[in-house]
Amino acid sequence: MNGHFDDLPDETKEKGIMAFAHCPPGDDGCLMVRLWDRHLPGWRVSLRRDDINEPVEDRNFAEQIGQFADATPLEPDQVDFDPHDTDSLTIQRFVAKRKGSWWQLPKALEVPDDK
Fold this sequence. Notes:
6 helices; 2 strands; extended; mainly alpha
């Protein structure tokens, strides 16, 4: 797989891996495709959606996500709800812009110094 995607032009790779490697390459005989079929049923259907890569334009939604991300985390003894039955939950992860020879995020993406 690495060789397959490494053959792409640099300007494509600089968009970040999720722009071009959102599913495994190959046909049904490829091991990775068979693993996706087994463990991610429905992935082929989701690829046929027209809006799969459309940006979310709901500013209110983006602001709500920002408020969740900026909120002070609760200590375990402050949790007054069932964490297995929530209306919403935020898990924050940090992703390196580049890892090894791959751009995980677009090369042109401006990232604040404190992130």
